[in-house]
Structures
1.
Amino acid sequence: MTILVIMVGAFFGAMARFGIGQLVKIWTASTFPWATLFVNVSGSFLLGYLYASSAGPSLMLGIGVGFLGSFTTFSTFKLEVMRFVAKDWIRFGVYLLATYVLGLVAAYLGYHLP
Amino acid sequence: MLYVYVGLAGALGALARYGVGTGIETFWIGMFPLGTLLINLSGSFVLGWLTHFLFRSGRLSPSIVTAVGTGFIGSFTTFSTFSIETIELLESGALGMALLYVTLSLVLGLFSSWLGFWLGRRRFRREGVAR
């Protein structure tokens, strides 16, 4: 049951992340990774909220581990940061710091919201 | 259809993350979130390698590349869990550990991705010469 709940959540989480990436591509020709920044910051906020609210174990698994765990991503974020190396140090620094600072602030706010 | 592939691969990636995380928890009883750190570092390495070698080699169809890279590896690694683990360390007063976790994630994450990129590119160039 645990496995199924995680998989269902993650199925939609990964699709939502991919969909946001596709939408951002349509909206802007910018090479800045707005989509990944958005999913990581908003996902951190929502997971903070979930941790602080008295969510039951199946919600924690389905939404927390499954949906939000898959909606946010670390590997793509690092890959995108590395693409700026030696080409655009300003974007390298801005993207790296923005993700960590905004992500942690968002999780903190979500955690203290309920 | 590509959405379904990404979703299915993502479901498997999350399952792998849960499995590896639970496995690490059985021998690691410390407060430090070692599981998520190792998952994120290994995923960054693999994605770097895949992107700069296997995905570029033209052996895989574009849909498989998206399903594996964005779906599986993207879902295997996670940023939200990292964020909340850091906040929980801060809330419990483990300031030094929180700082260590963020620093290791930042520095070693970049290093893992770079190592994957470097090894992948090297392999790609070598095979390109051989062909």
2.
Amino acid sequence: MNNNQQKTSSRNGTDESDLILGTSLWEDAWKRLRKNNMALASGVILLCLAVLCLLGPVLLGVFLGYDAHTQNLIYGPQPPSIQHPFGTDFYGRDLLTRVLIGAQVSLSVGFLAAMVAAFIGTIYGAVSSYSGGLVDSLMMRIVDILYALPYMFLVIILVTILGKSLLLLFLALGAVGWLLTARVVRGQVMSLKEQDFVLAARSLGTTSRSIIFRHLIPNTLGPVIVTFTLTVPSMILQEAFLSFLGLGVQPPQPSLGSLINDGANQMLVFWWTLVFPGSIMAIMLFALNFLGDGIRDALDPRMKT
Amino acid sequence: MVVLLFWLKVIALKVTLGRCVTLLFMAASLQLCGCQQQQSPYFGTVEPRHGPEELWINNSSEPEWLDPGRCSDSTGGEIIWNTFEGLVQAHPATLKPLPAIATHWDISDDGRTYTFYLRPSVWSDGHDLTAHDFVFALRRLVDPQTGSKYASNGFIFQEGLAISRGDAAVETLGVQAIDTHTLEITLVDPLPYFLNFLSFYSFMPLPEHLFQDLQNRGIDSDLWTRPEYVVCNGAFRMTDWRFRQHMTFEKNKSYWDAASVKLDRIRVAMVESATTAMNMYVAGEFDWPGGSTSLPAEFMDHLKEYQDFHSHPYLGVYFYWINTEEPPLDDPLVRRALSLAIDRDSLVQFVTRGGQHGSADLVPDGLAGYKGLHIPVYNPVKARQLLAEAGYATGQDLPLVTLSFNTSEGHKQVAEAIQAMWQQELGITVELANQEWKVFLANAEQTNFQICRMGWIGDYADPYTFLELLTSDCGNNHSNWSSTTYDTMLEQANQQHDAEERLRMLREAEAFALHEQPLIPLYVYTRTQLIKPYVRGIWGNHQDRHPWKYMWIDESFDPHDLMVGAGKNVFEDGQVPQ
């Protein structure tokens, strides 16, 4: 469908260039996205959060000498104050610094794991669909089987086997999270591969490999981006869940999940240790989901401009 | 908060996993509100959620063994103490030995031979309990085929050590049945603490007829502690065991002292998380979070204000075992550097917060007249020096060290604090690993760790209960460290008749062992617990033994009378049994 749209607009562009200025799919989408205030605001919030997470800890370290790991037991857990806007945790560490670093970890785990998932899923879906027949059935049944297995269970097994490092955590989450992308891409390629441009490429003797990577995959990018933006928040939640169980990011490294876990244990006495990481997590997930929804709507050609 | 909850709800509908987080937040906001309304002098509900014949408690984790001959952990011990009865029992408040299966006993002049006269009593299946059941149990304890970690408890009997090493036949053990109701025990040394020690769970009788019966039926006799088979002689009998959920115990009607058992049923849950256990206590799911459940450190200051909070000294040491074979920890200098870099005073004051006492000694102070070593606890300068002497100019040169502990917030907090201390004082990078209790114990037993957390509770009021941990033949010595010099030092001390001189020799041995630092003592325990005001018959004692047989529910307690002081302090004015 996206492809149809693209072809229509390009034909318009060449034939009636004097009368109507052609708009590409991406320009169209951008126009629609700009009208979606919620999505736009979410994007801005996310951008601010990302910048804060990256620069915040550095600035706090340079100007106030805070860092996320140095414990100061005598200082202990302090409620929010001017020196420590988010208060301090059980070990006397500045909570703002820890929340920012935790958000940094969560965001990067979310994005990297989603990228791993998108990468595997796109290639798998495209190859499966383009090959068709027995290979397609077989590859898709594997996806069905993996779908049937409890997702978190698989990740926990992978984390246990691979060990508890941050990099492996991206891989483990990504390695299990590609199933949805694979299905979406397969459906997309199913219709694409019957199109004339694929026939043309094939008649010119292009190899299957080039057809998949040069022609098919670039045309599925829209839906892949949509799945990607919606995978990021779910990955962040899963990382939080794993860290909550003690399987994800290991102390003293903070992540939003482990901060919330610590906070949940202490919420009756030190409320700020739950409220601040929890709120940041909520804002982040909220923004990511709205942005994802916005992009999906924007890329949907059936939506009126 | 409400807005946040709404946002989270929206997301949770999209992402299934989000529900966990949402629930958490809802729980958080509810708890925060609940906290402000509370006016009661008690923490949580004071209305029992069950009848007066029942008690709900926690036992923190799935016990490794419920077999008296094999058990070596406190969660299993808690169950064994209440389902089995030995020759003597410990007084619930003073821990003095009281007659149990033995009605009285004679002691020989040299203090090495004890003759016990047993009362006629029966097992829970109606079989007569005889002196032979004790002989069977104690032979099994030291038998190398049993593989008990606590075989060392049997080394006090004549030939115990030789049997355990496979050098003598089990029949030669210094425990003999003179007739069906007379038992003679011969000790290697005239131990001053023997009767006190005899109430320990390793010395319970075992139903020999059950083992034979199971073997005849072709059932693995290791399964004898399962509720469908188990035969016991204590106050309670297990009737149901749901893995990692709970166990149910019913009063044992054939128990010799059944008349003084007040409760009919006890439900024992296995909740590992201290915070969860505490929240369940608030909700009335537990009347007493149980002997082995600690309270979350963050709440200590808050809990101290409630009337149902109690604390008492506890004869236990919290320490870290070190695997002394694996580099870089095979070097005693490195081990001592690690110990010296720990600021124990801050640790107990700001992390554990329960009134514990920071100490680098293995034996707590004041035990049967024993003067503690008072090893200097915190000296980071010396620690860095020792590390440099060992060939590591900075901590970064040291390979990554893993510190393992069993899953619990309390252990995690201590581990995180010490991880930071070692990082900040010495620059050493430490990785934390948490494991479920049974897995953790299995790893500890095989010395499959670098540093691991352990606590040791004195089994009797004598320094030897701690010093014995480091002997070569002790099944609970997980450090790979052993020294014949140390073993001889202890042996010679125990042969000493002069009590003062014996303590001095034990003290020398302790100093010798701690200079090698096969373990890093951190602090001496203090027991803190919550007990519902309607629960009676629990006393604080320094071994934290709380026999269920004395516990009862006080129906005269008025839950609506929330005046301060309405509920009596069970810890201090319960009637102490004779």
